[in-house]
Design the sequence.
């Protein structure tokens, strides 16, 4: 009787996940050498995993020889996750109304450890915002949506989540963790957050929380615009619109 093949080791599993995780919006196509460099996995081992991933549809080889990209199997799994997000389903209609009423792009963001992830995006007719895509990850510390998500955490949790010195992305980015914590306290008091060119020069954003039946923040709803057209009056009307939409979604999630 032939011996049973041993189950894949945890090391192999970690390597497989590391290879898949190498791909991102900023790195949609990678070679075996690229992946080996990003993961510190030997190139020969990377090649073996790539063959399996291509066979199973998780990756595909592009028209450029030697370059690989995520395959339809990952697209299928990603859509299952997307469809199963209750908060996304509840938020879609209010986001549609908000985008139409204020002629602005509306985003829905959830937290995954120390990052935010766009899980829904609604654009008004005739507009297309290039800086955001569903599935894209954003920093928590320098975005309005991220500050909302951080505001659900204790000070201790925020300190353990973020480094003491935060990467500076623009001259307006808050880089001291203690200063950011004071900002989060203000967000908790006023119920909304803003990003004043902290992530990208020329771009401003405001966000509000969506709460679940336990009162925890399930997601952040945000909208943004060019700094030149994001004056106090425009910002105020967008915050008011966001708060109305987020309250509607929160009620659907069971928030009193």
Sequence:
């Amino acid at each position: 009787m032939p011996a049973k093949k041993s189950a894949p080791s945890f090391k192999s599993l970690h390597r497989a996940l590391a290879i898949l995780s190498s791909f991102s919006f900023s790195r949609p196509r990678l070679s075996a050498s690229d992946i080996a460099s990003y993961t510190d996995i030997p190139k020969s081992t990377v090649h073996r995993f790539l063959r399996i991933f291509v066979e199973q549809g998780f990756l595909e080889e592009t028209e450029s020889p030697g370059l690989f990209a995520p395959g339809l199997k990952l697209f299928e799994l990603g859509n299952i996750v997307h469809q199963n997000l209750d908060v996304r389903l509840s938020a879609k209609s209010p986001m549609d109304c908000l985008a139409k009423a204020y002629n602005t792009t509306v985003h829905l963001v959830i937290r995954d450890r120390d990052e935010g992830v766009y899980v829904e995006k609604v654009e008004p007719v005739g507009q297309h915002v290039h800086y955001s895509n569903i599935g894209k990850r954003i920093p928590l510390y320098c975005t309005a949506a991220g500050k909302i998500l951080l505001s659900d955490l204790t000070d201790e949790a925020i300190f353990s989540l973020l480094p003491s010195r935060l990467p500076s992305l623009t001259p307006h980015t808050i880089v001291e963790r203690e200063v950011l914590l004071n900002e989060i306290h203000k967000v908790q008091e006023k119920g909304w957050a803003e990003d004043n060119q902290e992530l990208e020069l020329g771009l401003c954003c405001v966000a509000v929380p969506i709460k679940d039946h336990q009162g925890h923040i399930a997601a952040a709803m945000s909208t943004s615009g060019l700094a030149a057209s994001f004056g106090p009056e425009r910002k105020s009307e967008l915050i008011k619109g966001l708060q109305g939409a987020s309250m509607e979604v929160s009620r659907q999630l069971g928030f009193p």
Summary: The chain has a mean pLDDT of 91.
